[in-house]
Each structure stands twice: as structure tokens, then as C-alpha cells.
UniProtKB/TrEMBL annotation:
InterPro entries to which the protein is assigned, alphabetical: RibonucZ/Hydroxyglut_hydro
Entry's transmembrane regions: none
Domain of life per record: Bacteria
Listed Pfam families: Lactamase_B_3
Organism from which the protein derives: Aerosakkonema funiforme FACHB-1375
Protein known as: MBL fold metallo-hydrolase
Amino acid sequence: MYLTWFDSNSWLIEIGGKRILLDPWLVGSLVFGKIDWLFKGLKQTQRPIPEKIDLILLSQGLEDHAHPETLKQLDRTIPVVGSPNAAKVARQLGYTQVTALSHEETFAIDKSIEIKATPGSPIGPTLTENGYLLKELETGFTLYYEPHGYHPPSLKEAAPVDVVITPIIDLALPLVGPIIKGTKSALSVAKLLQPQVMLPTAAGGDVVFEGLLMFLLKAVGSADEFRSQLAENNLSTQVIEAKPGERFELPLKQRALV
């Protein structure tokens, strides 16, 4: 299994002989609702559009996961799998092969990969977006992704999971609290899934953020603090901090059969 991180929540996952582009933001700026004075993300290094993409996987319909400018640059015939909200965005942009996955539904790529949608981040009072479990059927290796740190109790049915991509720090607003939950939820999901490897997402990378919101957001936690928490709880999970744009192979081992 190979991964490439493209800043923020954007990943290229090479698994089961397929190339899956996850929540891509590769070109242009990141703005929510065209309100750039409130929040704007700017890439210091523009990432080339990856070639030979087999699937685009979208966890949410918001701009930092279904980035309109990036999706307009990609081939609209590439199959898209996403939350119902993200699938709506893809269809509006002209994608011709779009599958909406509700929670607990699955999607198979040939006979090599199974993708299962899990409950993810709540967006407002009535909408809960997706996390995903990606399973390589030949090896059994499984990857879990949730970009805001919301992990449902039902995940225990999937344990053990080999790779977890999720936040490990909090990003919080005064009076509101964490909008990205990492410090406690990452440890909880590590205990639940017993992953071989965890990789932080949603923060850092080769990106500059500006706008009023940046004066209010507070980051809490770090990779080193999280490693200490894992050690204190006798968890052997390895924390890998990916470098933006660099492809790397995950050091996974087959688990002993019980």
C-alpha cells in the first residue's frame, strides 16, 4: 500500500492495484461559500493532477473535501464515490459515474477493493457525512479514514484495522469548542482499532491560511504528544507524519491468524 499526501485532507491511496484520489484539493484556493475574508487557504506549492486515477472518493460535500476547482480539472468520466451530499456536488459538476454511499453501504472496485461508508462528521443538526473503510481483498489490509475525528462505536466490528488516517490534534473555536477533534478521539480510535500505522490529516502541510477565522482558531496537541499517549497506553501503533507530495510505502505486516 502506497500513500501520497497533498496537504489538508487530500490523499492518493494506492491499494489493490488501484489509484484512489481522496478528498482532493490540488489547485486554486480553498474558500467556504465564497467568503474569503473569513477563511482562505492558499497552497504554497501547486500539486500536479495525478495520472491514471481509478476512483475519486469524497467524504463530504464541503469545499475542503469536494473542492470545486479541483474537481473541474479532473476527468469527469472518472468514477466518483461519495457521501450523498458529496455525490450531489459531483453530479452538478458533470461527473457521469457517481455513486452515493449512505452509512454502512459498500462499493466494490472489481474484485480487489471493498469500500464501506461509516458515520463521520456531523454538519449541522441533521446531516452526518462519511468516513470510510477501504479493504484490500487479496491481503486483507484495511485503511480507515475520517477527517474530523468523529468515530462511531460501530467501528469496533471492523477491528483490527491496519491504517488509520484521522486528525491527532484539536482545532477549536472560542465558545464553540473543537471543530476538528483529534487529541482524545485519536487515542480512542487507536484503542478501538489497534492500527499498525496512524497518519494525521486535516492540519499542516504546505499551505497558508488567512482570514478572520484564523485569529480565533486554536490548535491543541502535537504528533509527539500523541506518540507519548500511545506509549502510555501500551499501544505499538506507529505515527507517520507524511511529507506533502512525497509517495511512500506503508510498513505493514500480515497479522497472525487467530
